[in-house]
Design goal:
Helices cover 56% and strands 15% of the residues. The longest helix has 27 residues.
């Protein structure tokens, strides 16, 4: 479950780049009050570079496409502005939220992230971790009280595996003593990882707070590479530096938030009343109740007071977002505490003068531009209509596109090397049980829960291995197939459903979606071109050609 604290951490660390309203020497393009700088194109390239699997090249063609994309965002935001989107209450509320987000991010960066220093000792410690994998089990509890209760039962002699069978509903976790399989650095919650790598073998931890609740951890296997050389450490240093900074940033932000939230004291009586209103989803009565008690102090922390009106009004601004995460009064109380924390950050950002800094307000403008561009797409979508004739024309053009693709039910064993894969394949050929080998060898912990069974998958979802896998019949087994770097799969076909032609009426919605996508793509392009012409956009191709992007 995506918890309140997870959402709060995510909300205070998001950042993206778009058009800027500041002019400077590095301007590559300009449209109305917006400019696109070299730094923005570099940032956008880096994002695309990692999304492409690091295969994108920073040649002129790529740079043009990126600049064109960024210019398109600016053009669409102008289209939204010209059509009155920026004058709506929703837009004003969105900009206020973006301001608060940018200010709190900047405050956290200045106070917590920028001071982080990674030492050589830190890198060597992480290098040891990177070369060690761990298998662990855990007992999960949603609250500290329930975690403490489990811990006391362990201390009183109850069996770890029996407690797991009692608390877990999932068959695998219940029957395996809460086994999570093997994991490596950066694959688990940072607090969970830190405790697991510190914990002696076959001992259990005290309750550990993670972003999802609390875990009592038991390490069952620890594998460390026997020989680590200084040359390997030196070669990995740049990557280790990046990873160490990322992990320390997460620790610092998590600790700062948790420390404050633990100190928040709520007016329990008032919270109970508010919970009843919230539970009934009666926002009108909630607003009336808040208005009558607006100056009541709902929360106190570190000599700061937070009134009922302030906290609940802030909560309602994010009502749709938090609604799905609040199931109990405990969840509701946690949301109120998290809201107090956001207000604490904003107050400190104001005191630090961050809200008046031009650079930070530029970030707000950039984010608001993205919002307006998305709203422009909604406006364009609402202009599109599709006739029955257009639908039938598209279907008749390529009916094979709308046939149901081959469906295959596969199970797999995921391993870390071809050598291990060949060993597993040999065991399968000697008659060993597939499910047992999944549990013993898989590097994908989720596969343990389903015995490696992926269910039915469309051949379209099987990637570059799809052609080879499509040849498998029920009972057939693949060889060792490359899935990605350091991951290889052995598949077995359990069943297959052959492609089938489908009539127009059956796939009508699918055809309509395709036609709408095509129309939206064309309409978006025409709109961007029209806005570029209307506002006499300028692009400096010479400067773009001279732009150097280092990988």
């Amino acid at each position: 479950m995506f918890t309140v604290r997870q959402a709060l951490l995510l909300s205070i660390t998001l950042f993206w780049a778009s058009c800027s309203e500041q002019r400077g020497k590095e301007v590559l393009a300009e449209i109305d009050q917006y400019v696109i700088t070299e730094a923005q194109v570099k940032d956008a390239f880096e994002e695309y570079y990692f999304k492409s699997g690091r295969v994108l090249k920073p040649d002129m063609s790529t740079k043009k496409e990126i600049l064109k994309s960024e210019l398109g965002v600016c053009a669409l935001s102008l289209y939204a502005r010209d059509n009155g989107v920026s004058d709506t209450e929703e837009a004003f509320a969105q900009k206020a939220m973006l301001e608060k987000s940018a200010y709190t991010e900047a405050y956290l960066k200045k106070e917590l992230i920028d001071p982080i220093v990674i030492t050589d000792k830190d890198l060597r410690h992480l290098f040891e971790r990177v070369n060690t994998n761990i298998r662990a089990s855990h007992l999960y509890a949603p609250t500290l009280d329930s975690a403490r209760s489990l811990y006391e039962r362990l201390e009183n002699g109850e069996d770890f595996d029996e407690l797991a069978s009692e608390i877990f509903n999932h068959p695998y976790l219940a029957n395996s003593g809460g086994d999570l399989g093997f994991f490596e650095v950066d694959e688990m919650d940072i607090a969970f990882e830190d405790e697991a790598y510190r914990l002696p073998l076959n001992t259990y931890s005290k309750p550990v707070q993670t972003s999802q609740g609390y875990s009592i951890i038991k390490v069952t296997v620890r594998n460390r590479r026997p020989i680590l050389t200084e040359f390997e450490f030196s070669s990995a240093k740049n990557k280790l530096q990046w990873m160490a900074k990322k992990q320390e940033k997460e620790r610092v932000l998590r600790g700062h938030m948790d420390d404050f939230i633990e100190e928040v004291e709520l007016d329990k009586s008032r919270v109970a009343d508010l919970w009843e209103l919230f539970k009934a989803r009666d926002m009108e009565r909630s607003a009336q109740s808040i208005g009558a008690n607006s100056d009541d102090v709902l929360a106190v922390a570190r000599d700061e007071e937070f009134t009922t009106r302030d906290i609940y009004t802030e909560l309602l601004l994010n009502y749709d977002e938090v609604l799905g995460r609040i199931r109990t009064q405990h969840d509701f109380s946690e949301s109120l505490k998290a809201t107090a924390y956001r207000m604490h950050l904003l107050r400190n950002a104001e005191l630090a003068g961050i809200t008046t800094q031009d650079e930070i307000n530029d970030q707000v403008s950039e984010r608001y531009t993205r919002y307006l561009a998305k709203e422009a797409i909604t406006l364009l979508e609402n202009q599109i209509s599709v006739s029955e004739y257009e639908l039938r024309k598209e279907f008749n053009r390529a009916p094979d596109l709308y046939a149901s693709p081959l469906q295959m039910r596969l199970r797999r064993i995921a391993v870390s090397s071809t050598e291990v894969g060949e060993q597993v394949l040999a065991k399968l050929n000697n008659g060993e049980n597939f499910t047992d080998l999944v549990k013993e060898y898989t590097v994908r912990n989720d596969d343990r829960y389903v015995d490696g069974d992926l269910g039915f998958l469309s051949i379209k979802d099987l990637g570059f291995n799809g052609v080879e896998l499509s040849k498998l019949m029920p009972g057939d087994r693949s060889g060792v197939m490359t899935y990605q770097s350091n991951e290889y799969h052995i598949y077995e076909c359990l069943d297959r459903i052959e492609p089938q032609y489908q009539g127009f009426e059956y796939v009508k919605d699918q055809v309509a979606q395709k036609v709408r996508q095509n129309k939206l793509r064309d309409l978006r392009k025409r709109t961007v071109d029209e806005m570029i012409t209307r506002y006499d956009a300028f692009i400096d191709l010479k400067k773009l050609e001279e732009l150097t992007i280092e990988l």
